[in-house]
Each structure stands twice: as structure tokens, then as C-alpha cells.
């Protein structure tokens, strides 16, 4: 079975079957489309801005490079890149939401290639499975879309006709290789990549499901932006609501660290929070700055937490050990970083407002 290489998965937990929920017809496929290319690259360096004092003086200072190298890659104008996913071939997939295409960037040359996903497409999220296939949540098509990394063949898995306009957002593979996805209009669901079977479930408390992640033991959690909570998908495919301590915080995205703790970006509150399932406890930190808006969150291979802040137009690095923030200005204003993903030694994110992809290399 396929599993995401961009989430930490170890043990099988969840299964998607035909006995509960709603299923749809077999997927449809289209031949590989033609590609367009653009070649540009810009390299710059960013230095850490002084964070606000949030760490007790008894704690050791964070070990942070004096300067982090930021490499900036323009993509075709008007693409509106929303999410990114490093590819197995060294490239980087990105959803060109404004043009209805899946883009691919070669960081070595700056060359890009776009694959059309279908009339009306508006892709949001993208992740890859162990074979390198790109899986896209497409709000415009109201479908899950798979793109073969070699042939570029497009396969569409539509939601049931009685689930129109689900406002699909993001996806993650569970420990059984099932693809779980969210829709802000009150749904979550799963696709079996081996059979193409797709099932949709009503989310508890209605609208809001947005970001989604998988823990090292294969358990899926999602964030509800409108519902201001996170939820755990149980083995029976029901979702258990978990309330953060801050009311109306606007939980937008979630990411698991190597210990299975869930990190939450709280859009309304400007917070970064951590939920520990083992103890059912929360910790919360307010981002530096006067009016932070925490959008995306990602935990890298060293358990350093990264978040994007619309309020200060920046990326934020958080060390959970020292509880110190370091803030990095974006090259464009506004940049609007809506999602972060990576691979060992690299943190990738799109500036959706600037038609630009960025990598921060965390190791030499």
C-alpha cells in the first residue's frame, strides 16, 4: 500500500471500507498534458530578527545559525502556489491554484513544469505517496486527484454528487496507506489508493475541517478552522473533538512531531500550541510581534517547529527545548505563506501572493 513519505508513519491503525459512509464511482483518467517551462532562480540570505523575550532566563540559549540561506524560486506569473511537496526526484510539486494546474520545480535549474488537472480545477493541497505519486485535494473539481510522477497521467476521484462544494483542503496518509482528506464545508473522508474507493463522513460540529496530519503510530488528526478545535480520527472512522484551551482560537493547520505531539497553528489567536495525546494536556505560546496571525505549521526532521505569520509577513522558527522564537522576514510583501513542508535538511514553503517558492536549508 502507498504511504506518504512526508508524514511520519510506523504502525497500521485506520482502514477505509465500503460499509460506512458514502462511496463514489470509479476514478477517471486523462492522458498526460503538454508542459510549459520557466527558468529563473534567485538566492539570498536571511538573518534572524530579534524575537520578543518569551523564554525564562534560566533556560539555555537556542543554538541557531547566525544566518540561514534562503533560496527563492519564481514560478509562472498568476500561478498562485498554495501548497508544496518535495518530490522523490529532487524536485518540488506545488499546487498552482489560480491556474488549475499542478506545478513541478527543479531546484537545480529553476525550471518549472505545469500539468493541467481539468476544467474548473482549483487545487489546494498536495502530498506524495511512497511511489512518488502526487495526491491533490482539488476544491474546484470537488475531487481528489492523483498525478503520476513519470507519465503525468491525471486520475480524478470525485466526491459523491450529494456532497457538492466540499471546499477540499488537505490530505495525509494513515498507517494503512489510506488517504484521509478534509473539507471546510463540514466533511472529512478517505480514499483507498489501491481500489479508488472514496468515502465521505460528516464532521462533528459541522464546518471547519482544514489542516491534517498523521502521527508516527499512524493516527490521523485534523484541525477545524471554523470550529476552533482539533479532532482525532478513531479506528472506527469517527472523529473525536479535542478542545484547545484558548476559545475561538481558529485552529488552522496541524503537524505531528516525532513523539506524536500535535502542533497547532491558531489563526485567530496568533498562537502556536502543542497537544500531548499521552497526557491529554496543552501548551501554548504567543508568536512574537504586535498582531500575529499564525497560518501554517510544520515540524522538521530535528523536531524544530516552523510557522508562518501573516501579521508580520514572516516565517517563525520555534525550538521546543528552549521555547525560543526566531523570526525571518519574507522576500516579498505580502508573501502569504499558507503551507510548509520539507525533507531532511530542507524546509519548503510557497509565497502564494508573490508566485514564488522558497527553501530554507537547515543543514550545510
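^ C-alpha cells above, recovered residues below v
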Amino acid at each position: 500500500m502507498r504511504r506518504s513519505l512526508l508524514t511520519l508513519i510506523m504502525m497500521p491503525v485506520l482502514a477505509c471500507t465500503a460499509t460506512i459512509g458514502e462511496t463514489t464511482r470509479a476514478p477517471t483518467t486523462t492522458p498526460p498534458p503538454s508542459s510549459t517551462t520557466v527558468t529563473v532562480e534567485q538566492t539570498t540570505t536571511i538573518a534572524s530578527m530579534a524575537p520578543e523575550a518569551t523564554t525564562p532566563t534560566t533556560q539555555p540559549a537556542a543554538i541557531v545559525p547566525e544566518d540561514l540561506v534562503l533560496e527563492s524560486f519564481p514560478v509562472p506569473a498568476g500561478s498562485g502556489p498554495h501548497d508544496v511537496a518535495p518530490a522523490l526526484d529532487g524536485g518540488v510539486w506545488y499546487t498552482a491554484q489560480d491556474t488549475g494546474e499542478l506545478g513541478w520545480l527543479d531546484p537545480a535549474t529553476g525550471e518549472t513544469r505545469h500539468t493541467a488537472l481539468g476544467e474548473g480545477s482549483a487545487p489546494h493541497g498536495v502530498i506524495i505517496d511512497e511511489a512518488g505519486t502526487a495526491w491533490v485535494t482539488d476544491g474546484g473539481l470537488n475531487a481528489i486527484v492523483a498525478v503520476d510522477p513519470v507519465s503525468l497521467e491525471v486520475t480524478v476521484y470525485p466526491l459523491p454528487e450529494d456532497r457538492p462544494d466540499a471546499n477540499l483542503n488537505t490530505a495525509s496518509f494513515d498507517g494503512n496507506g489510506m488517504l484521509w482528506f478534509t473539507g471546510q464545508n463540514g466533511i472529512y473522508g478517505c480514499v483507498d489508493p489501491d481500489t479508488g474507493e472514496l468515502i465521505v463522513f460528516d464532521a462533528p460540529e459541522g464546518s471547519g475541517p482544514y489542516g491534517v496530519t498523521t502521527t508516527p503510530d499512524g493516527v490521523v488528526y485534523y484541525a477545524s478552522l471554523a470550529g476552533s478545535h482539533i479532532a482525532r480520527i478513531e479506528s472506527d472512522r469517527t472523529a473525536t473533538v479535542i478542545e484547545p484551551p484558548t476559545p475561538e482560537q481558529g485552529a488552522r493547520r496541524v503537524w505531528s512531531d516525532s513523539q506524536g505531539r500535535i502542533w497547532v497553528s491558531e489563526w485567530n489567536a496568533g498562537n502556536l500550541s502543542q497537544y500531548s495525546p499521552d497526557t491529554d494536556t496543552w501548551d501554548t505560546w504567543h508568536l512574537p510581534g504586535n498582531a500575529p496571525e499564525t497560518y501554517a505549521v510544520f515540524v522538521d526532521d530535528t523536531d524544530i517547529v516552523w510557522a508562518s505569520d501573516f501579521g508580520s509577513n514572516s516565517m517563525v522558527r520555534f525550538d521546543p527545548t528552549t521555547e525560543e522564537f526566531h523570526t525571518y522576514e519574507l522576500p516579498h510583501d505580502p508573501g502569504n505563506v499558507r503551507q510548509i513542508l520539507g525533507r531532511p535538511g530542507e524546509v519548503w514553503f510557497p509565497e502564494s501572493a508573490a508566485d514564488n517558492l522558497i527553501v530554507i536549508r537547515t543543514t550545510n
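The mean pLDDT is 86.
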